[in-house]
RNA polymerase sigma-70 factor
Amino acid sequence: MQISNEDYQQFKPLLFSLGYRMLGSIVEAEDIVQETFLKAYQINEQKIDNNKAYLCKMMTNRCLDVLRSARYRREHYVGPWNPEPLLLEKSSDLDPSEVVLQKEGLSIAYLRMMEHLVPDERAVLLLREVFDFSYLEIANIIEKKEENCRKIFSRAKQKISRVEGESLNYEINESIINRFIQAFQTQNRDTLLELISENVILYSDGGGIVKAAIRPIVSLSNVLALLYGIIKKVPEDFYFEVKNVNGQPAVVIYMNGTVHSILSFYICNVKINEMYMTMNPEKLPI
């Protein structure tokens, strides 16, 4: 059995979804999907028993290589690092790639927490929890013993336990964000206190390209002071929309006719616990 054009159509969404979750980068994930299929097409003599497993193995191992080589870049990144936001359509009439992407493990909070995992932990966690591979299949993909994969998964789960309580109900979260926007605009502090944790943290990602806070902003008063400071300086053509970003509602901010930034949220126990403001133009849709 060889890789065919039908396999490309069938498995491309799966591979992109895996790569994006592994790397937090749309461009890198797309590049590795193309690279994976190009290499797979060139295989003539080797017998492939399971095309899906074979392609996932190639994709995973290439992502692991990229993660290991990218560690230096991540460690020297200017300011907080946020995953590249993925704008999705809210419509129920989705194409296959969006159906795959709408599953769990896609939120900015989840992907950001993945940065606390070493590459092997990231791969095992995603393959098991998000893509529902068996431990035997995972062992074959990353070339480790099945028992080792179980231990890696357990260790990874402990490291990201903080996002286990994240609310993923789109409608409820959208209501919270719309109330936050209204309270922010009217400076209704009582409602803001109701909606936002006192210990809220804002991670502002400018990547050293545009001006952004180079350290996380901690506490409700400091976060609000930063946001109000930004609003005071916006041009007249400033506007925003609440859109589906990574399967959750987020605020997409436009200035001078282009996307200026995207503000995503980590909501837990009906409160905003973290905010992620991505301003790095290399991570924003054109």
In short: The longest strand covers residues 258-268.
